[in-house]
Amino acid sequence: MFGTVLIANRGEIAVRVLRACRELGIRTVAVHSTEDRDSAVVRMADRSVQIGPAPARQSYLNAAAIIEAARQTGAEAVHPGYGFLSENPDFAEVCEASGLTFIGPPAEVIATLGDKTAARAAMSAAGLPLLPGSIEPLVDVEGAARLAGEIGYPVIIKAAAGGGGRGMSIVEDPSEFSRAYQQTRGTAQTLFGDGRVYVERYLASARHVEIQILCDGYGNAIHLGERDCSVQRRHQKLVEETPAPGLPAELTARMGEVAVRGALATGYLGAGTFEFIVDTENNFYFMEVNCRIQVEHPVTEAVTGVDLITEQIRIAAGERLTLTQDDVRPRGVAIECRVNVEDPTRNFAPTPGVLEQFVPPGGPFLRVDTHGYAGYRVPAAYDSLLAKVIAWAPDRAQAIARMRRALGEFTIEGPGIRTTAQFLDRVLRDPLFAEAKHDTSLVARILEADAQAT
Amino acid sequence: MFGTVLIANRGEIAVRVLRACRELGIRTVAVHSTEDRDSAVVRMADRSVQIGPAPARQSYLNAAAIIEAARQTGAEAVHPGYGFLSENPDFAEVCEASGLTFIGPPAEVIATLGDKTAARAAMSAAGLPLLPGSIEPLVDVEGAARLAGEIGYPVIIKAAAGGGGRGMSIVEDPSEFSRAYQQTRGTAQTLFGDGRVYVERYLASARHVEIQILCDGYGNAIHLGERDCSVQRRHQKLVEETPAPGLPAELTARMGEVAVRGALATGYLGAGTFEFIVDTENNFYFMEVNCRIQVEHPVTEAVTGVDLITEQIRIAAGERLTLTQDDVRPRGVAIECRVNVEDPTRNFAPTPGVLEQFVPPGGPFLRVDTHGYAGYRVPAAYDSLLAKVIAWAPDRAQAIARMRRALGEFTIEGPGIRTTAQFLDRVLRDPLFAEAKHDTSLVARILEADAQAT
Amino acid sequence: MSSYRVPRALQNGFDEHPDHEVIELRHNGLDEVLAAVRQTAVELLAAAPQSPSTLTVRAGTVAVEMTWETAAAATTVPGAVLAPPVAATIDAGGGNILAASTVGVFYRSASPGAAPFVKEGDHVVPGQQVAIIEAMKLMLPVEADRPGEVVEILVADGESVEFGQPLFRLAAVEA
Amino acid sequence: MSSYRVPRALQNGFDEHPDHEVIELRHNGLDEVLAAVRQTAVELLAAAPQSPSTLTVRAGTVAVEMTWETAAAATTVPGAVLAPPVAATIDAGGGNILAASTVGVFYRSASPGAAPFVKEGDHVVPGQQVAIIEAMKLMLPVEADRPGEVVEILVADGESVEFGQPLFRLAAVEA
Q: Which of residues 164-223 of A touch D (CB under 8 A)?
């Protein structure tokens, strides 16, 4: 096992990784920008190194500074958390080149799965179901239009190098196709320096369901069930839960099997997530693989009892998976709510500032992961995620009741500070959500409804 | 289900009960002394009523004021928590007489089980194993001495009305017996106005293991496994865990069965605890029944997933147990540490005062139940229990590592404030505890060892 | 009624802390110590609300075990009973307030329709009954604890009051 | 070496926030908006550390989606590369301090045994090299950003430094 691990991240996930290291008896190094000098992880870590100014490019995205900090502190491994450099194959490569273990998949696996067309090709070869669409990038507009016709409208045109809801167009009608095609290519070229695009069937009503997997370096791979992340605002997840409500167990079991197959086919290592969309007829289609731990990993931990960060670290240290697929016995229901420092009444504008009061909820079957504390100044430079509240219960109704109790208890106050806690409660009490009849359009519906109501 | 419940307690358990009520959609009434005017439960409750001055006799033990507060607020039921009036049969009786549901067993059951000799008689009739000793109270010193001889020394003489380590004498040698007998009778008479005593075998090395039970009003009773509470300082529990480390599963299963039998035999209702001691040969003996929820109930909740307070309330509301014995499938290991506001270096003297900083630990598989908050003034008038930290893990070693991580994170600061957190860590890292070779003498051994070391 | 008998839990005493467990205890002049503690407890109770806990703690003997229980301990003094506090008024903020000594319902007159015990402008003398608080069907007289003029009646007839709630504002008068 | 190629994650861009999911997005002049945001990001980055996030957020259009990413967004400006920050010194507290512009190892001379670039008492001019910081085997010159007299050298030769760590104290001199 490693003696010292460098945590190349900030916020709640940095604290989460630190806790896992501490429980494993591993010394921790926190790297931070000038902006995060007083952050929770810096206070908790055994050592800390200031690696740059506020802008992420010069600090949390500054591979050179992070590698140098690892050298200075004698760290043997780097945990990238999520975001920042966590899915950067070059960073993974530099780590290995510098004699550091990158806690994640090998660089080439990240590279392949990070390229949408390459990932689609690999998964289709592994027999995973894909939305009808192109495997290879399209070459000319005529071929593209022909394919779109075969697929059937509406279709979506996506940049091969894209992601995060950028560089894509939904086309409802054939007459719009060629214009949208050219436009998307242009966008992709300017945005990503890579004009390759592909086209696939567009699903208006769908649910976002993902499978958590773990793979060791000895060909052992398991899945830890699914997460439903359909409650999103502009592709930002707000609420995640497991199991996926209303989906047949056989369906999610099958999704788990194919995810494991896909992982083994690509030589995956560590913790990863296979994203699928599920249509109204319960057909599921592979979307992409996330080569990192995810924000919502705690709901999986809550029902399985498996500490995913600890597993990541053990696998990276060369240990074998001690869990078999049979050992994974999910129990009950877990829901996560993301409490962001944003003002829902002002289009979710971030409200950075000082937290004069900060009292997270507590009590039975409740978990809070946060880097917040009374007196903490939430910087404007980074993500608005302040805390994750995770509630467990034997069934979904009780889990929702527990989460609503917890959100009500959460005290966060400071000049100009607003949070999404109340809005999350609004979502939880929405009939569509309560009856699990919602899809990815839920939040938009709620916002429209409330807007008209006022 | 009740519309409004009055919480006749204070501190962390009052907050715990409030959370359960809120999740059940029940309105809450907090009653409090002048001293607790700004307490957490008062801030959280839907309504609060000040029932008296600081001394418990005039507030939390003031049945008349509590009943009147219930009448004023339209409460339909009273949750007594632990301590105070929770095991007072007269209070249970007054509640019923006033048309309030007492959330606990019927008055007559509390009365029977509250009387040590009556409880011993009832349990021996139900076939539970008792330590060799007298069932009926002793009448004369000669008979007592004869019985002591038959039992074999050392013996312990206990007041029938006693409890909590008061009104008892351990006798090592027959020559001491009659003096100790007279002395104990005198103590019992002055202390409890009841001079009845009985004698039983005294075990020098023993473990304290208790069984959690639940009984509904329809003859259904289940047990939820055991708790080992052997880490005690002068009969005060410091650390509790489940399962009991090193005890064979068949043994604890048998203890569970006899506890259920004893509960059914006495017409028990609600949540209760059967206390046993287990000797070095794994023989177990019934000690007493606690007719209340206990401080350490969260460890049972952590491994079973059952919310014991919610079950108490449902049962009191006349609902049937939805759980069968087969549904109770404990998973992993849970440990609770009690963080008291005491100074271990000054013989655990309480250190009341203002908490200028109060940041409980968080993160995966961790629970904190507390009434503390930054700015809270810990009153001198009541118990020194400030927070309960509960850690869960798949195995005991990881649970201990997690607990030590959590205790290290816990920030509690204020003028004159000291806590037991560091001492608890000292206990957790003791080899005897780590190897589960400890008994109820562990804390005394540690304190002696450390005293000699300095 | 039953609540005025000595409740068994109070006879057992000391059970304010829930988790005493009886497994081993050396016999070391237990009753002398207990007697001392009981004596202290009684004296301290006679004195102001809090201090007992901290004071007995400083003893640093077996008595430490008992300090947390002081409040309850006091109730085990032979003869103690669980009765509503006597209705002697207590002083809550500003020496000119008569406050409720118990939770209950406030009545200004002995019976419906009867004349109120006092009205604004009246002068009262120590021990004079000025109202009734009904708690658990017991009528508890509220008495003035000092001379004064009733300048304001702060609670309406028939209203519920909690412990320490201001009932009357008095103005000092020449004796 | 490899870390100086444009990392793919940065080309994908905007992945600082981990949880964008692509399920539905109406096509509404996307690239114009993006162009505007990119432009803003570039300008803001040129300016001081924080503000970009808050500023672009106030737009209240699709652009809101992108504000959290500003820091990363800037790195996607075509031609951006992941190189150690240039070694122009920054000012950390008290206008008379030359501070480290990167994490690395501090060297006072060009090579072991060679004469130090500067010693206490020397006068330096803007742009004059005063030390080297080695980061990832790159030798990055540390240059004075203003004229002054070296009154104190705060780090020993060969010591590790973090970003913003004071290296030299200068005293102002007559120009």
A: 164-171, 180, 183, 186-187, 190-194, 202-204, 206, 208
Give yes or no: residues A149 and A282 share one domain. Answer: no
A180 with A249, same domain?
A: no
pLDDT in tens, B148-194: 999 999 999 988 877 666 788 999 999 999 999 999 999 888 888 88
Q: Pseudo-torsion of CA A194, A195, A196, A198, nearest 10°?
A: 130
CB contact under 8 Å between C21 and B91, yes or no, is no
Q: Judge if A184 and A222 occupy the same domain.
A: no
Write out chain C residues lying below 8 Å of B191, CB-based. 13, 34, 38, 76
Query: Cβ of A97 and D19 within 8 Å?
Result: no
CATH of the domain at A60: 3.40.50.20
User: How far is it, in rounded angstroms, from Cα C164 to Cα C101?
Assistant: 6
User: Sorting pLDDT into bands at 50, 70 and 90, what band is C95?
Assistant: low
Write out the residue range of the structural domain in which residue B237 sits.
207-453
CATH code: domain of residue A359: 3.30.470.20
Q: Does ipTM surpass 0.85 in this model?
A: no
For residue B243, say if its preceding peptide bond is cis, omega within 30 degrees of 0: yes
- Is the pLDDT score of A396 beyond 80? yes
Does residue B123 sit within a domain? no
Most B CBs within 10 Å, among C1, C10, C11, C12, to test the B interface:
C12
With CB atoms and an 8 Å threshold, state whether D20 touches A384: no
C and B: touch, per 3+ CB pairs < 8 A? yes
Q: Measured between CB atoms, which of A23, A363, A373 is closest to B401?
A: A23
Looking from the CA of B261 toward its CB, the CA atoms found within 13 Å total 15
In terms of domains, do B212 and B196 share one?
Answer: no
B55 is a domain residue: yes
Residues A286 and A218 in one domain: yes
Q: Contact at 8 Å (CB) between B313 and B5?
A: yes
Say which CATH number the domain at A172 has.
3.30.1490.20
Strand stretches in B206-278, DSSP E: 207-215, 221-233, 236-242, 270-278
Best of D22, D56, D140 to substitute, by most chain A Cβ atoms within 10 angstroms, is D22
Which pLDDT tens digit goes with each residue over B356-414? 999 999 999 999 999 999 999 999 999 999 999 999 999 999 999 999 999 999 999 99
pLDDT of residue B190: 85
Residue B66 lies inside a defined structural domain of this protein = yes
- Show the CA angle centred on residue A56, arms to residues A52 and A58, nearest 5°: 40
Out of A301, A368, A394, name the one closest to residue B362 (CB): A368
Residues A383 and A257 both lie in one domain:
yes
Are B195 and B307 contained in the same domain?
no
Q: Looking at A301-408, which runs of residues are DSSP E strands? A: 333-340, 342-343, 349-350, 353-354, 357-359, 366-370, 377-378, 385-393
Residue C130's contacts (CB-CB under 8 Å, 6 or more residues apart) are: C98, C117, C118, C124, C142, C143, C144, C150, C167, C168
Where is pLDDT greater, at C90 or A392?
Answer: A392
Cα A283 to Cα A385: distance, rounded to the nearest angstrom = 32
Given B161, B179, B201, which residue is the final one in a domain? B201
Rounded to two decimals, the pTM is 0.84
Judge C/A contact: 3 or more CB pairs < 8 A. Answer: no
Q: How many domains does the structure of chain A reveal?
A: 3
Q: Is the dihedral of CA B124, B128, B134, B138 positive or negative?
A: negative
Give B-chain residues touching C18 at CB under 8 angstroms: 82-83, 86, 290, 292, 294-295
Nearest to D24 among A161, A204, A290 (CB): A204
* Average confidence (pLDDT) over D21-46: 39
Q: Is residue B124 part of a domain?
A: no
Instruction: Give yes or no: residues B258 and B384 share one domain.
Output: yes
Q: Are strands A353-354 and A377-378 parallel, antiparallel or unpaired?
A: antiparallel
